[in-house]
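Dear support,

We are seeing what looks like truncated structure output for some complexes. This example has two components. We would appreciate it if you could run it in full and send us the complete token output so we can diff it against ours.
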Amino acid sequence: MKPQHGSRLRNFHQAKWDEEVIFELSNPGERGIHYPQVERAISDAVGDGVSEIPASMRRESPPALPEVGQMRVLKHFLRLSQQNLGADLNIDVGQGTCTIKYSPKINEKIAGSAKARDIHPHQDESTVQGALRIMYELDLFFREISGMDRFSLQPSSGSHAILTMAAVIHKYHEVRGEADTRDELITTIFSHPSDAAAAAAKGYRITTLYPDEQGMPDLEALKAAVSERTAGLFITNPEDIGIFNPHIAEFTRVVHEVGGVCGYDQANANGIMGITRAREADFDLCFFNLHKTFSAPHGCGGPASGALGATKEMADYLPVPLVGFDGGKYYLDYDVPHTIGKARTFYGAFPVILKAYAWIMSMGAEGLKEAARIAVLNNNYLFKHITEIAGATSPYKGGKRRIEQVRYSWEELYNETGVDTHDVTLRLADFGFHLWQSHHPFVVPQPFTIEPTESYSKEELDEYLDGLRHVVHEARTEPDTVKRAPHNSVVHKIDESVYDDPDKWAITWRAYLKKHGREAAKIRG
Amino acid sequence: MAAGDRVHPYIPNSVPDVKAKMLAEIGIDDIDTLYEDIPESLRFRGELNIPEGITSELELERHMTDVLSVNRTCSENISFLGGGCYRHYVPAICDEITGRAEFLTAYAGEPYEDHGRFQALFEYQSLMGELLETDVVNVPTYDWGQAASTSIRMSGRITDRDVILIGDTISPDRLQVIRTYCEPVMKIELVQHAPETAALDLEDLDKRLTSSVAALYCENPTYFGTVEEHGQVIADTVHSNGSLFVVGVDPVSLGVIKPPSQYGADITCGDIQSLGNHQYFGGALGGFIATRDEKKYVMEYPSRLFGISKTEREGEWGFGDVAYERTSFAVREQGKEFIGTAAALYGISSAVYLSLLGPQGIRELDQNILQKSQYAMKRLAGVDGVAIKFDAFHFKEFVVDFTGTGKAVQEINDALLEQGIFGGKDLSRLSAELEGCALYAVTEVTTQEDIDRLVEALEVLS
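Here is the complete output from our reference environment:
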């Protein structure tokens, strides 16, 4: 590869197969897989098995699934995969708040073994001691990293851990006879949308704190918001803008004083492992995203895991079962006095749990801390260089430094050139880069958030910087090139008007055929 | 630096010269300076009690293999376990596709960079739509528990009512998940079942149908594997009260069993673990929700819904988010419940699975499951003191009543385990009715020999 424009940029083009929708590949009679006929003794004993289906419950015609030969199915999905930009292929620093780090292949290999895949949750505990050991030891590791006293690995994601925290808090107040009166939950605008939304789903009224001019959530606003109606506080730190709130212990103190419970959303833990913990800031609950900080891959949006930690007092409310160890064997522990019950069927997303465990084993205490330190170094390196790009700024002066990510703004670029943050993200795709805008609402105008983690080399960070510089240069010299992007992607500008129109949106192929007609589907000849 | 003086393979910029160069460009001497905003009172100055990193991949694999080696798998033994996690055959291509780095390590790219992800999940929705005969299916949720919970919450919003009736033949775990998710916003009441057949008790349903009832949720097949015959009657009864009918279903049954939308269900939900995903200790779950294509339903989904569109280039498909503004990503707590990372990769696996099976494959599969489970029920019923608990048509699972043997289920299961058989899940503690009972599952992976060995073992025991 030789860079163009005297930079490190690649002459990139994404694979484009012009691949059909799977239903367009159907040829009646083709088969993708066979199942065996049952043994003769079975059919002799019970007949065809289907005749006795009650008439009211019998499916008369088979589902209209496509009929496609095996190799063509394989090819179809392989082509779709090639039309997708996974983190293994790009310099995936552009998805701030999501900690897209290297997911080691050895962990995939281990998770793919029959010893992991082929075990059932209701097996006798004596037959799943390896799985239980992994869960138990991972709990111990998380206790170290957080300072908390016990972890449940049941929640299925960060958002689910937030919902589970809300359930724990509800139960806690219920036990005290205060569930009905404590109906307010406080969060901040730079905490994940789910800190507000999942708490609201549990029935809480939400108060959202906004930042002061330093970017810190407003302590005075918190003091004004708390009362005997306060159930709790859900907050990140560093917040999604990458600034560490040094007054965090003051926040938890204020909430504790009115009898509230403090839950720490640790989605942003990657820069602070071994540096500062939930315990020191006096949180009652916290959670880690195993698919972020602890390296499990993101899988196009899951499976995921949100390991939920609690102080000794709050551990009495965690979902069951937890995993215990009696010195000889590991066991499922249902002895949780005020348990909320269950957050998820069975015990958690075991493949994700397994990969996080393997990753921590490969890092050790020192490696975890080194990962955090280098993630912060990488971030501040990008911070330094991105804020030197004319047109890019980073709001808020509070704290000279940033931890593991930074929220930036293209506002100046937009005002000068009319190129907005969405245009920039699409143009960057032409060079094999991903850039995410940020969570809504856009408190920071024309936002983008970058989190480089520890995984990418300086050279790769420099290449990404060149991408940003190049697009900014284009915005000034040939803005139409940016505005018409992407040019080297799988597809061209998509007609997005249909997505909000009930008469036109099509969420399945059958709906598409109904709304747009079979003729429209044949447009591809 | 981790691992003595060696740079960790996952942390390239630990190279001292690189680090020094980057620090110099930032204008500081030490990484510690970057943490200067964290006050000393919040700093952790202790040592993490975590073992030294196994930085050699060879040794890491050895360690992990060693830890896992004590697990005894379902393939090394004979397993009759089900109850929400099943040992179905996973075609090789499912693993091939979900192992592709482009899918495995992708997350949240734009429809332009991640065209493949959007198309694959649109196809997942579409394939499920054919199986379920519904025009709307969501991108996967965490599991059936969440899918049922959200279906219930959607019912509450659509009807503006707050009581949910739940058929008590629901999975007990799932009921707990629903309570965690739905209470106190929704109030839950259980509807009884007929003791002989496990069918929903229509009289009890009638009694409970008040003007506050948003919906009836029930599962078909039930947790006990019985198939409810009166779906349409139940739907009509519920609808006449202005309530919705929500049905949880094991989608793998729908090659031969009528999908709930065809007997009056307004919302269908369930789990896709059965469709091309491994057991993973119950860890590879994914939920689906399916409805008609009506605005009042679509706008109540919290989930991502991927739609198909065209591009400026003739003949090119494009994909994207339908009605994004309803989500919490767009409007935080003003959105419908919440959305985040869930189980997309399992949706892709299920898309591959359904594409491979096609209309004939899924019927063959279901026939195989029915024949084997009927054979198992028949043989078990012939063992002294052993009976099949419910008199109904079953799919894949059935409750075995061991009370006639005079032995506790745990005692029987311990003896079976000694012979390499994982007996059915003990239901004794679930209710008085199920004392001495166990839930057995038979799938296409089960062989006649497996069933015969179980029967022989029980004949000796009983």
